[in-house]
């Protein structure tokens, strides 16, 4: 195939156009190292299962009062009216309580899945949902490895319900409602670095009380809620099969291939078209 | 459906365009055909259900749960429907890029089919959106989630619909008798085709890439980092199988519109498609095999999901592939059509396995679509067929273009 001046310019303009129009597909890389996110440390050895956090959460977010109480054998699930629940598990060291809510990942799957930026990792650290942007596609629910975002299936104006670390309270300089109302000091609010230091200190000082792991330090690439426990985390209903790298990492490869294909494909297709055009002329002549 | 009772439509020739369009809205042919009698009540029921859905919320007519937030409307209507619409990019590639003029007679009907599939299945997506009034956010406004695969897919759907409309627009211009517009629109075809194929490559695979982040939620026999590649490769034979299937129906129903020359050529076209299907299915099967061996999931084969996986791979990929090879060599059109139907079933099974059956396969409560979800899905498909029939009975899709349009080239 010979490239003449005209087809060369055709290639050039098409490539240029694709480069200009082609969307940028920058996967998020808000790694926790550069900024120090606000975080919560939950120490399950201190939790007494009083549900004060649940009631405070419901009140702070205009949700109905929580129903039922933690008991071993029954799992109370997060749903569209409960952003935070306490469950009780029978473990090798007796009955233990665990609080469940959004993990506020350093690189959240939900926000990288969101096509309208409605799920948003704030500079401060909390992952918040913005109703004026959300179109209700529920891709955040499909992507979240912790199954946190919940959808109001029975509403004509449905919202996504999930813990936002009381972002509005944080902006006013207050602590999250659950932390403020915990009578057992099982919840601590602070920056992620401080809290990891504090958690390590507790593990080192009481090696018999704690298992040597901070859940959330590396899970899903690091999360904004950190857990301490006295038994292995799989006994407490935690997902322990999660990857240690962030979830947006999984679709990065695909997204990075997009600009390449956008540049290469049109040029290639046009090239094949030009190359096969001559065959057609010959065929027509033969006919 | 018997359409032989009325004359072939005439294109507009010098009439006022508005008057002509109004005239075209009158129904042509019989109203009480078996197809209409079955489809009309379902469409009306679907409409009622859609009203309930917008009034009482998505949960009022669907069985979706907090664990399985995407059900039949996404897994079947969108993900499977788009795979079947892949025929349009494959055939425009063969005709306009590889210059295989042999397939030219079916370009228009395939592009029309693809275009309507996108309009209706993307339209069905609106039903599934909880807050559809915000649907324009990723397109206009200040809410670009550029790191989202769904953002890419949404844009591609929109752009591809425009590209397909441009590819099809000469037929509309011929119907309306708009000669100048026809010339301009025809000149845009190649650009639209190139753009369309590029978009198709990316969003056919993109539909698979959407599930990459659901790593632990999809059964390991169906999850791998190669889902996008699998979705793309399988869309080639999914689209062609649908073209074979749809062609065999259209050739009967709209036989009065198709010239004898094209009627005869169709035989050869189907035979060639069988060959293309067989080869791409071989490549697909081989890829699946590689992924399986690489994934080291031998132990999972001896489970219920494992048997289901083997059924899909052997019964709905390997078997129709062999059938395509065999019927191609034997020149057997009937067997090709059977192979196409089995292949289509296989695609439905595959897409549902990734999106619904294998999604949270370990959850306590499984998702099964409610009868209302199925009725709405059927209503969407029937409405599409009605529009499809309306266009074919009016515009030069299957029948020859008017002479002025042919002379223009």
Task: Please give a quick description of this structure.
The complex is a heterodimer of chains A (287) and B (409). Chain A is an alpha+beta fold and 287 residues long. Chain A has 8 helices and 9 strands.
Could you outline the blueprint of secondary structure elements for this entry?
The complex is a heterodimer of chains A (287) and B (409).
Chain A lengths: L4 H17 L16 E6 L8 H9 L24 E7 L2 E7 L8 H5 L5 E3 L5 E3 L9 H5 L6 E2 L8 E2 L5 H5 L5 H4 L6 E5 H14 L19 E4 L20 H38 L1
Helix pairs in contact in A: 1-8
Chain B lengths: L16 H8 L9 H23 L15 H13 L2 H11 L9 H22 L20 H28 L2 H9 L1 H21 L17 H27 L6 H36 L8 H27 L2 H25 L13 H22 L10 H6 L1
Rg calc of chain B: 22 Å
Strand content of chain B: under 5%
What is the helical fraction of chain A, as a range of percent?
A: 25-40%
Radius of gyration of chain A: 26 Å
Instruction: Return the string of H and E elements of chain A.
Output: HEHEEHEEHEEHHEHEH
Structural class by SSE content of chain B: mainly alpha
Spatial separation of the terminal alpha carbons of chain A: 24 Å
Based on Cα principal axes, name the global outline of chain A: elongated
Strand order of the largest sheet of chain A: 8-1-9
The strand count of chain B comes to 0
- Cα end-to-end separation of chain B: 36 Å
Q: In one word, what is the shape of chain B?
A: globular
Overall average residue pLDDT of chain A:
88
Describe this entry's structure for a reader.
The complex is a heterodimer of chains A (287) and B (409). With 287 residues, chain A is an alpha+beta fold. Chain A has a domain at 38-236: Alpha-Beta Plaits. In chain A, a hairpin with an 8-residue loop joins β6 (150-151) and β7 (160-161). In chain A, the strands form four sheets. In chain A, strands 8-1-9 form a three-stranded mixed sheet. Chain A has a two-stranded antiparallel sheet with strand order 2-3. Chain A contains eight helices and nine strands. The model of chain A is unreliable at 22-32 (pLDDT under 50). In chain A, α1 runs antiparallel to α8. Chain B is an all-alpha fold. Chain B is built from 14 helices and no strands. Chain B has helices spanning 17-24, 34-56, 72-84, 87-97, 107-128, 149-176, 179-187, 189-209, 227-253, 260-295, 304-330, 333-357, 371-392, 403-408. In chain B, α3 packs antiparallel against α12 (333-357) and α6 packs antiparallel against α7. The two termini of chain B are 36 Å apart. Mean pLDDT of chain B is 91; it is low at 1-7. At the A-B interface, α3, α4, β6 and α8 of A face α2, α4, α6 and α8 of B.
